[in-house]
Amino acid sequence: WGFSTRSIGGLVMMHGDDQGLRLPPKLAPVQVVVVPVRTDDQAVVGYGEELTEELQTAGIRVKLDVREDETFGFKINKWEVKGVPLRVEIGEREVEGNKLTIVRRDTGEKQEIQADTPGVGVQKLLNEIQENMFAEAEAFLKENTREAKDYEEFKKIMEENRGFILANWCEDAECEAKIKEETKASTRCLTKEGEEQAGACVYCKSASKNRWLFAQAY
After folding, report:
1. In what order do the strands lie in the sheet with 32-36?
2. pLDDT value at position 1?
3. Distance of CA 145 to the CA centre of its chain
């Protein structure tokens, strides 16, 4: 199967929300963005520069946003839309307390961590986000995958729920064409779990060696 720009579309549709993109940390070009509350405060900016350097040394893809032509609020919205997994907000309070205020893009949760070993704390959060987003996607897939034991059930699922349908298919192209004509669903892929799951074809009742995933293509 072709791994092309469609994979990007799948990524956006699977993980995006009303605020924009949500990128898994392992795929995100920028994993952490550091946003000073004020760019005219040299102590705050310097704190951000030190933090950025430490995170880079720890192997984290990080960007320090010190643009002066955008407000703090605009920057927050901008990086949310771009889907950066972690946003670090720093101001006078963080500098004085040697802390970091961190916002997770996946949940919107805001928390404070000590800045003594920022690379360790930030990497731990990135790992948690990666695991959480994968678990969310896996749960969504399971919730939207249904098994059809016969063609009436197949049609009912397509009328009421859609999503993915697990069903046996005889692997005859003419049979699949009829299913698509009547329900708009066609085979999407044969998973490892579906291999050698013998049964009767959901449409023509002929012998079937494998159980396939059906869905409507858009």
Report:
1. 62-64, 32-36, 86-90, 99-104, 110-114
2. 54
3. 18
Degrees to nearest 5, angle at CA 217 with 173 and 3: 95
Low-confidence ranges of the chain (pLDDT < 70): 1-2
| Interatomic CA distance for residues 4 and 73, integer angstroms | 35
Nearest-10 Cα torsion for 180, 185, 189, 195: -80
Q: Which residues contact 189 (CB under 8 A, 6 or more apart)?
A: 1, 212, 213
pLDDT of 2 reads 67
Handedness of CA 133, 134, 140, 141 (dihedral sign): positive
C-alpha distances in Å from residue 121, one per residue of 86, 91, 125: 12, 19, 6
Task: Give the per-residue pLDDT at 5.
Answer: 86
Q: Are 171 and 145 in contact (CB under 8 A)?
A: no
pLDDT digits (tens, 9 = 90+) for 81-100: 999 999 999 999 999 999 99
pLDDT for 204 equals 95
The token pair that represents 120 in the structure block: 């360790």
